[in-house]
Specification:
mainly alpha; globular; two-stranded antiparallel ribbon; 4 strands; 4 helices
Length: 103
């Protein structure tokens, strides 16, 4: 396997792992188009569109992109919903940093 193939597969696995953690703990508590106590979406992303202020990858039920940087991000309120969830996402973020997927 070449380095690029390894990085692509690793990135995909980290995204899958983050999705699994998010599914298990549901830190954003998305219900009826809202997350926690605000209108969905509240995600902060480098992919936010200037015209709408919303991320171009956000879909009706959450993130529609496979980007580990976005998948491990939680707002301050969501970070406080479950300590174990937050710790798990931070570990995934550290692996992403180790392999250059994020800074």
């Amino acid at each position: 396997m070449i380095d690029l193939e390894f990085k692509i597969q690793l990135h995909n696995k980290l995204c899958e792992l983050a999705d699994l953690i998010l599914y298990q703990y549901n830190p954003c508590q998305i219900r009826n188009g809202k997350c926690l106590d605000r209108d969905f979406p509240c995600c902060s992303s480098r992919f936010n569109r200037k015209d709408t202020g919303k991320c171009m990858f956000l879909k009706e039920k959450g993130c529609g992109g496979d980007n580990v940087v976005c998948k491990v991000w939680l707002c301050d309120k969501a970070e406080k919903t479950n300590e174990e969830c937050t710790k798990a996402l931070k570990i995934i973020e550290e692996l992403a940093k180790l392999y250059g997927f994020t800074t």
